[in-house]
Description:
With about 190 residues, this protein is an alpha/beta fold. It has one domain. It is about 25% helix and about 20% strand. The protein contains five helices and eight strands; from the N terminus they run ββαβαβααββαββ. The protein has helices spanning about 50-60, 80-90, 105-110, 115-120, 160-165; strands spanning about 5-10, 20-25, 65-70, 95-100, 125-130, 150, 170-175, 180-185. The chain has a six-stranded mixed sheet with strand order 1-2-3-4-5-6, with no helix packed on it. Strand 2 (about 20-25), helix 1 (about 50-60) and strand 3 form a beta-alpha-beta unit. It is globular and about 40 Å long. The model has no long low-confidence stretch (mean pLDDT about 95).
Amino acid sequence: MLIERLFYPIETLGIGKRIALWTCGCSKCCPKCISPEIWESDIKKDVPVPQLIKAIKKIIRENEVDGITISGGDPLEQAEEVLELISHLQEICHDILLYTGFTLPELCTVLSREQYKRLKKDIAVLIDGRYIDELNDNKSPLIGSTNQMVHFFDESLKPKYDEYCRLNERRVQNIFYDKNMISVGIHNREER
Length: 192
């Protein structure tokens, strides 16, 4: 699976202290995307799914983890490997949130019927849709532009996420790694 980065704790892409994973590769190339540096698929960043699962389990064993967020790139451009990963993760962490540039109707055509069923079974929350800068209203702590939708495949988490969105403003975390800095979170329009 092509992985750009894996960080913990991330507190700006979902509720609580989360493990956040970014895949690389995205064919959508949304103008003013927050992560254009990971649009290209880079085979040098291939991490076998079992190795990734082992690393995530180690983080969970050693830390308080409230959830897992998977972003990119676009994770569902590597659908089979992502589905394999989340099938293992959902056994150890209930709150899995996944971002994709595909809309839910597009996923019904991009994924096979079986893949779509697995996705809905194994993640709790899906945030779909391409980023559109003109629709960034500088408000929601979970979505970048108002065309994006939050879908609850586990309805029991909806009240918790609704409260999170009502009580929280957008925040970013600046993370320094390998002589680089990235800002993690949902950015306001003027910050892109």
